[in-house]
Amino acid sequence: MSRSAHPAGPRHADVLPEGHYQAPPTDLNALDEKVWSRTVSRDADGAVRVGGIEVTRLAEEFGTPAYLLDEADFRARCRAWRDAFGDEADVFYAGKAFLSRAVVKWLKEEGLNLDVCSGVELATALDAGMPADRIAFHGNNKTPAEIERAVEDGVGRIVLDSFQEIVRVAHTADRLGRRQRVQIRVTVGVEAHTHEFIATAHEDQKFGIALAEGQAAEAVRRVLGLDGLELVGIHSHIGSQIFDMAGFEVSARRVVQLLAAIRDEHGVELPEIDLGGGLGIAYTPDDDPREPHEIAKSLSEIVTRECAAAGLATPRISVEPGRAIVGPTAFTLYEVGTIKPLEGLRTYVSVDGGMSDNIRTALYDAEYTVALVSRRSDAPPMLVRVVGKHCESGDIVVKDAFLPADLAPGDLIAVPATGAYCRSMASNYNHALRPPVVSVADGAARVIVRRETEEDLLRLDVG
Ligand code: LLP
To answer: Annotated binding residue at 364?
Structure first.
């Protein structure tokens, strides 16, 4: 959630309301590669393409709003994470960011594992051919049916989140005659510098078992005493959209200290640690995310150093990036409907979607950028707020941005970096039909999640 105070350009100084703005870009036609996926470009004639196809053609064929996902970029990001961590570590893509059968297939082909957090995410993964032993099952309140399914299907690990769950998973494993591999999720007491709703390692929240007061050590004692469970490691996830590595370092250090304490008390060295996901991406050009190789290097250095100091063999590390893989790979394409200039304030640009396809601005005060993509324009910049079509004044997609002053109804605009937590958190508010996800690669486009239809919604309403 970048935020930069910036004076507006001279043309706007007299009309800008109080607030913080990104600078009006010097060239509104430029597409900053920090926030756009890698095959996005603007032709000399002004049309924007992704995966070799003009977005105007994509809009004609698939309609708007639509999420356009750059498959080559997705695969390249998977490979960057895989290569950065090498064979000594595992990368689990966090499916909650965005999951579909096509994505599962790409992950499988690119050598990533998958983290799921519901029975239906698990079903999607298995249906698309992800081997069960490459799946981790998460969640703070897995239902008995979900636990049963995960154990029965033989998932590679279940990440235990509470004392009750230790008992539930152990009973299920006993009943099914299995020995289930598990990790224990601990809260390490780190205050991650991110929005309160997406920080997860401080103590006053619902996830995991606290290291403080010996809770985690007690959970380890219980798990080690149960035949149906094989404790393979400790898990920590400190939050999401984080740029500063300091929190990960503290977390890694505390997890290694717990491993040392377990060795001292039980004489067992656990073979794995999982440091979760949470790496931030650029939503605006002001954000400076870390590259996977930097993250891999700093995590592996800290774990190796702390383990050496504690006299432990270095465990196998795993990480769970979601946003950092899928976030930058997609943008949302909208058609402009109405344009309302509010004298002395800003211009409200209404699009054919809104908080039903991107709740992040309303929920986390998230910042995005926007660009006119159906043509080029040399008109001067105008300060806009991009809003949706829902019955709510908080229905904002992009709070403050600049678009060309000749913007007109029917123009196509696009909001980049919407690959993570937009389709997966989409809703049917006002009976909105959730948009399709269209993957684009090498001049070909394919719907991977189709647009909902009126019949889909009416079918749920059984009268
Ligand atoms: N591992 C665990 C255990 C998690 O809970 C999460 C995210 C991840 C990995 C992946 O985190 P990522 O790398 O994607 O940041 N809806 C919010 C984000 C919620 C994240 C929940 N857990 C948003 O739109 O920002």
So the answer is: yes
Specify the DSSP class assigned to residue 329.
G
Number of domains in the chain: 2
In a domain? residue 7: no
Q: What's the CATH code of the domain at 443?
A: 2.40.37.10
Q: What is the CA radius of gyration of the chain?
A: 23
Let me know if 422 is a catalytic residue. Answer: no
CA 163 to centroid of chain Cα atoms: 28
pLDDT, one tens digit per residue, over 6-37 is 333 333 434 566 665 666 778 999 999 999 99
Identify the domain boundary among 266, 296, 321: 321
Q: Is 370 in the pocket of ligand 1 (CB under 6 A)?
A: no
Residues 296 and 332 in one domain: no
pLDDT confidence band for 60 (50 / 70 / 90): very high
For atom 9 of ligand 1, the residue with the nearest CA is 277
Residues spanned by the domain of 240: 138-321
What is this structure's pTM?
Answer: 0.94
Domain termination site, one of 321, 340, 360: 321
Supply angle C-alpha 62, 73, 448, rounded to 5.
Answer: 35
Which of 137, 197, 323 gets mutated to test ligand 1 (max ligand atoms within 8 A of its CB)? 323
322 lines ligand 1 (CB under 6 A): yes
Per-residue model confidence (pLDDT) at position 24 = 78
> Would 254 be classed as within a structural domain?
yes
Domain assignment present for 421: yes
Residue with tokens 């948009």: 435
Report which secondary-structure segment, H or E, holds 67: strand 66-70
Q: How many whole angstroms from 99 Cα to the centroid of ligand 1?
A: 13
* Distance from the alpha carbon of residue 225 to the mean position of ligand 1, in angstroms: 31
How big is the chain, counted in residues?
Answer: 463
Residues 238 and 383 in one domain: no
